[in-house]
User: Fold this.
Amino acid sequence: LIFLQHVRSSLGRSSNTGKVFGHTLEDIIANEQAYVAEVYKKSKGIPLILERLVFHILHHVDEEGLFRISSHKRDITALREALEKEFAGAYTSGSIDAVVQDYNAHVVANVLKMLLREMPEPLVPFALYPAI
Assistant:
């Protein structure tokens, strides 16, 4: 378990200083609560960024190779930076959708994978590994 935590912490982490990528779910939620408390109350504890990225991908679920085919690195980087910029201030689900709509579903899927990969702890926390 300790080895897995070490590998996880050393791989896939960027030196990003934004409020989304490279942070825990708890940190993302805390940042959202600070800026969009009224929107967050409706989200049932799911970070708005995750909700909106998944929502966009669900509308393109018939796209071939959605999570398998990679996109151009510049497009992935551009969307990531646009999302971080959006999250630097007040935002809404509509403003996130406006940013995401300029990109195809493959780019959005790659950014979602990047967001999850760069979290310091996986969605299923290390503490739950022994129970699994």
Observations:
- Helices lie at 2-10, 25-35, 37-40, 48-58, 73-86, 93-100, 105-117.
- The mean pLDDT is 81.
